[in-house]
Write a structure and sequence with these properties.
The complex is a heterodimer of chains A (297) and B (232). With 297 residues, chain A is mostly helical. In chain A, a hairpin with a 2-residue loop joins strand 2 and strand 3. Chain A contains twelve helices and three strands, in the order αααβαααααββαααα. Chain A has one domain. Chain B is of the alpha+beta class and 232 residues long. In chain B, 17% of the residues lie in helices and 41% in strands. Chain B has two helices and twelve strands. The radius of gyration of chain B is 21 Å and the shape is globular. Chain B starts with a helix and ends in a 10-residue tail after the last strand. Classes of the chains: A mainly alpha (297), B alpha+beta (232). The interface between A and B is large, with 53 and 43 residues.
Chain lengths: 297, 232
């Protein structure tokens, strides 16, 4: 099993498309960082709006490494599922396309093991990609912009507000957010692997996964009350942004943030459970259909 | 023809008003004299901001003042939202130029103390201040409260509590209240995670357009030279 996993990881590492994800992440992050180095104050002015009429605030201190990483993840974690689908969508269908699937199944390895290894390899790829994101988006941003208290701009119902998290209270939130993101992206991997079972070429499952993610994400962000109430809770994309919950700091009755606190841990936990359920369902379906599949290629 | 009794009444009223105006000018000069003893100061403290759209922690601050009206507040660590119009914190700034008309606002009771109300009207038409009302404790020549109405930035209210530095006219606590504008971000701009958390009811019923900043000050270092760079 370990040998098989090593082999699978070797195959992923040998594929040029694997590195597209790393280059794309680095390029997007770099563009963000350069843009904010050049004119981050304009963005901050937009977000602060008329707060600056009544309060003096050093925007340059607010645009720090922690804030930059949050802004980057806000954008990137919508795009990264596409990059994850590029690898996971190829898992079974790629083998079928090259004709190696039939050969692989002649070996004394169960179909469950094959799927489990493919799934584990895709999970490891996701972890490595997130680790890479942490290096370029968080550590490199801290290197460029320094570290200070972090501002979170938030809209809840009809209320807009700004939360400030002390700099010594930020790092554990990033660890938790990246761990959450790993679970969220694994949902995409398992969906892509499931779709990959039904196809004999790589393009189909990759494109289908990307289309599902984009379609669901658009619906999740429509902000129409009917959809918010009746459809949004049933879309896994609504829970992909749950990592942000780790940055929603709880406040006292007087509105002061409470260090080391979360505003709504049960909501984050429930979102995690929904995502984990999706992983189990997608993986089980993939195993079920792969076991029943006639290997004709 | 004006009746002599009416003329007498008019003269009496006018002279009574002049006496009162002189009284409050004497009182104001006494307050000013007390504040004039302070050429500069440096103090430490904490600042708590109470605004519905700002969830920010209590910050440690340092306050600096230098005559005639230089005031600077700096936070000792982290990000800070410092209220503009901070110059109002120092009453020397209001009283220093002396270019105002003093009007007696009568006597009243504030924080169970008998106080005198003094209104200052700037003589200069280009002054950003329209009217300043001071609530003075006459026995100790200290200002307990001031309300300043400006032309462009609304009304600022200061409530002061004195303890250790009463003889210098320097407060230990300042509550600075002012109006703010609404803060509203467009929906969808922040891609929020809808955690279903119910909107928290804030304790202060200040509403969305009221702000209150509470400053507790300690460790005044009075009349110690302060470098000009601090105020830049």
């Amino acid at each position: 099993m370990i040998n098989l996993l090593g082999l699978e990881l070797y195959k992923i590492a040998r594929r040029p498309r694997t590195y597209i994800a790393f280059v794309a992440v680095a390029a997007i992050v770099l563009v963000f960082q350069l843009a904010f180095l050049a004119d981050g104050e304009s963005y901050m002015s937009l977000m602060l709006q008329n707060v600056k009429d009544n309060f003096d605030m050093e925007s340059s201190k607010a645009i720090n490494g922690y804030f930059m990483c949050y802004i980057i993840l806000n954008t990137l974690l919508v795009q990264v599922p596409i990059l994850v689908a590029l690898i996971a969508g190829d898992a079974i269908s790629g083998e079928a396309n090259m004709g190696t699937l039939r050969l692989m199944l002649t070996k004394p390895i169960s179909r469950l093991n094959i799927i489990a290894v493919k799934f584990t390899a895709a999970f490891i790829f996701t972890l490595v990609l997130l680790f890479w994101m942490a290096i370029v988006a968080l550590l490199f941003s801290i290197f460029l912009f320094g570290a200070d208290d972090m501002l979170i701009f938030r809209v809840r119902s009809e209320e807009s507000f700004i939360m400030q998290i002390a700099k010594d209270d930020v790092m554990w939130r990033y660890f938790a957010a990246f761990a959450y993101a790993a679970v969220a992206l694994t949902v995409i991997s398992s969906l892509a692997i499931l779709l990959s079972v039904f196809s004999d070429n790589s393009i189909g499952p990759i494109v289908t996964t990307v289309c599902i993610v984009i379609f669901f994400t658009i619906i999740s962000n429509l902000n129409v009350p009917v959809i918010d109430k009746n459809i949004k809770p049933f879309l896994f994309t609504s829970y992909l942004v749950g990592w942000k919950g780790f940055f929603y700091i709880n406040t006292s009755e007087e509105g002061q943030p409470i260090k080391q606190s979360l505003e709504n841990w049960p909501a984050i936990r429930n979102s995690l459970l929904v995502l984990l359920t999706h992983i189990v369902v997608f993986f089980s379906l993939a195993v079920y259909f792969f076991r029943k599949k006639d290997i004709l290629s | 023809m004006i009746k002599p009794t009416f003329l007498m009444f008019f003269l009496l009223c006018f002279s009574a008003h002049s006496v009162h105006a002189q009284d409050v000018e004497v009182l104001l000069n006494a307050v000013k004299k007390k504040l004039d003893k302070v050429n500069s100061y440096e103090a430490e403290g904490t600042m708590k901001t109470n605004v519905s759209f700002l969830k920010i922690p209590v910050s440690s601050i340092k306050m600096y003042f230098k005559k005639p009206s230089k005031v600077k507040i700096k936070t000792t660590s982290g990000l800070s939202f410092l209220p503009k119009g901070a110059v109002q914190f120092n009453l020397n700034s209001i009283l220093s130029d002396g270019d105002y008309m003093v009007i007696d606002g009568g006597a009243a009771t504030l924080k169970s103390s008998s106080i005198r109300i003094v209104k200052l009207l700037p003589k200069n038409e280009s002054s950003p201040i329209v009217l300043t009302t001071l609530y003075i404790l006459p026995e100790q020549n200290i200002i307990l409260k001031s309300i300043t109405t400006t032309k462009e930035n609304g009304t600022y209210e200061l409530n002061m509590t004195y303890q250790k530095y009463k003889e210098w006219g320097l407060p230990d606590q300042i509550i600075f209240a002012f109006n703010t504008k609404d803060y509203k971000l467009p929906k969808g701009i922040t891609f929020d995670f809808d955690d279903g958390a119910a909107k928290k009811k804030s304790k202060p019923a200040l509403g969305n357009k009221k702000a209150e900043v509470l400053i507790n000050i300690k460790n005044y270092v009075i009349n110690k030279p302060i470098a000009e760079e601090i105020f830049k």
